[in-house]
Amino acid sequence: MIDIFSRRRSSRKFQNRPVSVEDTESLVEAALYAASSRGIRPWELVVVSDNELIGALSKVKKHGSSFLKNAPLAMVVLGIPEESDVWIEDTSILSTHLLIEAEYLGLGACWIQIRNRFDAEGTPSEQVVRTILEIPDSRSVESIIAIGYKDGESEPYTSEDLHTEKVFFQKYTR
Ligand SMILES: Cc1cc2nc3c(=O)[nH]c(=O)nc-3n(C[C@H](O)[C@H](O)[C@H](O)COP(=O)(O)O)c2cc1C
Question: What is the pLDDT of residues 85-114, one digit of tens each?
Protein backbone atom coordinates (compact mmCIF):
# COMPACT_ATOMS: atom_id res chain seq x y z
CA MET A 1 0.00 0.00 0.00
CA ILE A 2 2.80 2.44 0.85
CA ASP A 3 4.02 2.00 -2.76
CA ILE A 4 1.07 3.82 -4.20
CA PHE A 5 1.90 6.89 -2.11
CA SER A 6 5.58 6.92 -3.07
CA ARG A 7 4.80 6.44 -6.77
CA ARG A 8 2.15 9.17 -6.89
CA ARG A 9 3.76 12.21 -8.50
CA SER A 10 2.04 15.08 -10.27
CA SER A 11 1.74 14.40 -14.02
CA ARG A 12 1.33 17.37 -16.34
CA LYS A 13 2.08 15.64 -19.66
CA PHE A 14 -0.39 13.16 -21.08
CA GLN A 15 -0.66 10.82 -24.06
CA ASN A 16 -3.07 11.90 -26.75
CA ARG A 17 -5.76 9.30 -26.06
CA PRO A 18 -8.97 9.34 -24.05
CA VAL A 19 -9.30 7.80 -20.61
CA SER A 20 -11.30 4.58 -20.98
CA VAL A 21 -14.89 4.40 -19.77
CA GLU A 22 -13.86 1.71 -17.23
CA ASP A 23 -11.08 3.85 -15.78
CA THR A 24 -13.35 6.91 -15.67
CA GLU A 25 -15.96 4.89 -13.79
CA SER A 26 -13.34 3.62 -11.32
CA LEU A 27 -12.18 7.18 -10.68
CA VAL A 28 -15.72 8.34 -10.00
CA GLU A 29 -16.35 5.38 -7.69
CA ALA A 30 -13.12 6.04 -5.76
CA ALA A 31 -14.09 9.69 -5.37
CA LEU A 32 -17.53 8.85 -4.02
CA TYR A 33 -16.04 6.57 -1.32
CA ALA A 34 -14.35 9.61 0.28
CA ALA A 35 -14.82 10.16 4.00
CA SER A 36 -16.77 13.28 4.96
CA SER A 37 -17.66 14.91 8.24
CA ARG A 38 -20.89 13.40 9.61
CA GLY A 39 -21.24 11.58 6.29
CA ILE A 40 -22.78 14.70 4.75
CA ARG A 41 -20.84 14.45 1.47
CA PRO A 42 -21.03 18.19 0.73
CA TRP A 43 -19.60 17.77 -2.72
CA GLU A 44 -20.40 17.18 -6.37
CA LEU A 45 -18.18 16.22 -9.29
CA VAL A 46 -18.29 17.37 -12.92
CA VAL A 47 -16.56 14.91 -15.26
CA VAL A 48 -15.33 16.75 -18.35
CA SER A 49 -13.88 15.02 -21.42
CA ASP A 50 -15.03 17.50 -24.06
CA ASN A 51 -11.95 19.05 -25.72
CA GLU A 52 -13.40 22.53 -26.06
CA LEU A 53 -14.53 22.68 -22.45
CA ILE A 54 -11.14 21.40 -21.26
CA GLY A 55 -9.44 24.04 -23.43
CA ALA A 56 -11.56 26.76 -21.79
CA LEU A 57 -10.87 25.38 -18.30
CA SER A 58 -7.11 25.46 -18.98
CA LYS A 59 -7.29 29.28 -18.99
CA VAL A 60 -9.07 29.77 -15.68
CA LYS A 61 -5.88 30.59 -13.79
CA LYS A 62 -3.09 33.04 -14.56
CA HIS A 63 -0.52 30.39 -13.62
CA GLY A 64 -0.54 26.63 -13.19
CA SER A 65 -3.50 25.50 -15.32
CA SER A 66 -2.36 25.78 -18.96
CA PHE A 67 -1.13 22.15 -19.08
CA LEU A 68 -4.76 21.06 -18.67
CA LYS A 69 -5.41 21.80 -22.38
CA ASN A 70 -3.61 18.55 -23.30
CA ALA A 71 -5.35 16.40 -20.69
CA PRO A 72 -8.12 14.08 -21.92
CA LEU A 73 -10.06 14.27 -18.66
CA ALA A 74 -10.79 16.94 -16.05
CA MET A 75 -12.60 16.15 -12.82
CA VAL A 76 -14.02 19.38 -11.41
CA VAL A 77 -14.54 19.10 -7.65
CA LEU A 78 -17.39 21.21 -6.25
CA GLY A 79 -18.12 21.99 -2.62
CA ILE A 80 -21.54 22.81 -1.17
CA PRO A 81 -20.80 25.29 1.68
CA GLU A 82 -24.44 25.53 2.77
CA GLU A 83 -24.41 21.80 3.60
CA SER A 84 -21.28 21.71 5.78
CA ASP A 85 -18.81 24.13 7.38
CA VAL A 86 -15.98 21.68 6.65
CA TRP A 87 -16.62 21.30 2.91
CA ILE A 88 -13.03 22.30 2.19
CA GLU A 89 -11.68 19.36 4.18
CA ASP A 90 -14.24 17.02 2.63
CA THR A 91 -13.58 18.10 -0.97
CA SER A 92 -9.82 17.85 -0.33
CA ILE A 93 -10.23 14.22 0.69
CA LEU A 94 -12.26 13.50 -2.44
CA SER A 95 -9.63 15.22 -4.60
CA THR A 96 -6.93 13.10 -2.96
CA HIS A 97 -8.88 9.91 -3.68
CA LEU A 98 -8.82 10.87 -7.36
CA LEU A 99 -5.03 11.36 -7.32
CA ILE A 100 -4.42 8.02 -5.64
CA GLU A 101 -6.92 6.05 -7.76
CA ALA A 102 -5.39 7.55 -10.91
CA GLU A 103 -1.97 6.24 -9.84
CA TYR A 104 -3.48 2.86 -9.00
CA LEU A 105 -4.96 2.65 -12.52
CA GLY A 106 -1.64 3.60 -14.13
CA LEU A 107 -2.90 7.07 -15.02
CA GLY A 108 -1.23 10.38 -14.24
CA ALA A 109 -2.97 13.24 -12.46
CA CYS A 110 -2.37 16.71 -11.11
CA TRP A 111 -4.36 18.93 -8.76
CA ILE A 112 -5.16 22.39 -10.12
CA GLN A 113 -6.06 24.79 -7.32
CA ILE A 114 -9.18 26.83 -8.12
CA ARG A 115 -10.45 28.17 -4.78
CA ASN A 116 -8.80 31.55 -3.96
CA ARG A 117 -7.15 31.76 -7.39
CA PHE A 118 -7.66 34.21 -10.29
CA ASP A 119 -7.42 34.25 -14.07
CA ALA A 120 -5.20 36.59 -16.13
CA GLU A 121 -7.84 39.37 -15.93
CA GLY A 122 -8.15 39.10 -12.15
CA THR A 123 -11.54 37.33 -12.20
CA PRO A 124 -11.88 34.62 -9.53
CA SER A 125 -11.12 31.25 -11.13
CA GLU A 126 -14.16 29.76 -9.38
CA GLN A 127 -16.43 32.23 -11.18
CA VAL A 128 -14.82 31.49 -14.55
CA VAL A 129 -15.28 27.73 -14.03
CA ARG A 130 -18.91 28.28 -13.00
CA THR A 131 -19.59 30.24 -16.19
CA ILE A 132 -17.91 27.66 -18.48
CA LEU A 133 -19.70 24.67 -16.94
CA GLU A 134 -22.99 26.43 -16.00
CA ILE A 135 -22.55 25.67 -12.30
CA PRO A 136 -24.88 27.52 -9.85
CA ASP A 137 -23.42 30.14 -7.47
CA SER A 138 -24.34 27.94 -4.48
CA ARG A 139 -21.45 25.65 -5.44
CA SER A 140 -17.80 26.44 -4.72
CA VAL A 141 -15.11 25.08 -6.97
CA GLU A 142 -12.24 23.66 -4.98
CA SER A 143 -10.06 21.99 -7.58
CA ILE A 144 -9.79 20.53 -11.03
CA ILE A 145 -7.98 17.20 -11.18
CA ALA A 146 -6.32 16.80 -14.59
CA ILE A 147 -6.07 13.12 -15.56
CA GLY A 148 -4.67 11.12 -18.46
CA TYR A 149 -2.28 8.34 -19.43
CA LYS A 150 1.19 9.56 -18.48
CA ASP A 151 3.58 10.76 -21.14
CA GLY A 152 6.81 10.18 -19.22
CA GLU A 153 7.32 9.20 -15.60
CA SER A 154 8.56 11.21 -12.61
CA GLU A 155 10.84 9.36 -10.23
CA PRO A 156 8.90 7.84 -7.34
CA TYR A 157 9.70 9.24 -3.92
CA THR A 158 11.98 7.21 -1.67
CA SER A 159 12.31 7.19 2.10
CA GLU A 160 15.15 9.72 1.66
CA ASP A 161 12.62 12.29 0.44
CA LEU A 162 10.61 12.09 3.64
CA HIS A 163 10.79 15.09 5.98
CA THR A 164 10.94 12.98 9.10
CA GLU A 165 12.07 16.01 11.13
CA LYS A 166 8.46 17.19 10.92
CA VAL A 167 7.24 14.28 13.02
CA PHE A 168 7.21 14.26 16.82
CA PHE A 169 6.36 11.49 19.23
CA GLN A 170 4.40 12.07 22.43
CA LYS A 171 5.32 15.78 22.80
CA TYR A 172 6.43 18.49 20.38
CA THR A 173 10.21 18.59 20.78
CA ARG A 174 11.79 21.06 18.37
C1 LIG B 1 -3.66 21.93 -2.83
C2 LIG B 1 -2.79 21.73 -4.05
C3 LIG B 1 -2.85 22.66 -5.07
C4 LIG B 1 -2.07 22.49 -6.22
N5 LIG B 1 -2.24 23.37 -7.25
C6 LIG B 1 -1.55 23.17 -8.40
C7 LIG B 1 -1.79 23.99 -9.54
O8 LIG B 1 -2.64 24.86 -9.52
N9 LIG B 1 -1.07 23.76 -10.66
C10 LIG B 1 -0.12 22.75 -10.73
O11 LIG B 1 0.51 22.60 -11.79
N12 LIG B 1 0.12 21.94 -9.66
C13 LIG B 1 -0.57 22.12 -8.52
N14 LIG B 1 -0.40 21.25 -7.46
C15 LIG B 1 0.59 20.17 -7.55
C16 LIG B 1 1.82 20.50 -6.71
O17 LIG B 1 2.59 21.48 -7.37
C18 LIG B 1 2.64 19.21 -6.47
O19 LIG B 1 1.85 18.30 -5.74
C20 LIG B 1 3.92 19.50 -5.71
O21 LIG B 1 4.82 20.24 -6.51
C22 LIG B 1 4.63 18.20 -5.27
O23 LIG B 1 4.91 17.37 -6.38
P24 LIG B 1 4.31 15.88 -6.45
O25 LIG B 1 2.82 16.00 -6.59
O26 LIG B 1 4.96 15.26 -7.66
O27 LIG B 1 4.66 15.18 -5.17
C28 LIG B 1 -1.17 21.39 -6.31
C29 LIG B 1 -1.12 20.46 -5.27
C30 LIG B 1 -1.93 20.62 -4.17
C31 LIG B 1 -1.91 19.56 -3.10
Answer: 999 999 999 999 999 999 999 999 999 999
- Is 111 touching ligand 1 by the criterion CB < 6 Å? yes
Establish if 165 belongs to a structural domain. Answer: no
Atom 28 in ligand 1: which residue has the minimum CA distance? 111
- Give the Å distance between the CA of 135 and the centre of ligand 1: 24
* Count of domains observed in the chain: 1
> Is 173 within a domain?
no
CA dist., res. 146 & res. 142, Å (int): 13
Give the other-Cβ count within 10 Å of 151's Cβ: 13
For the whole model, what pTM was predicted? Answer: 0.98
Q: What is the CATH number of the domain that holds 22?
A: 3.40.109.10
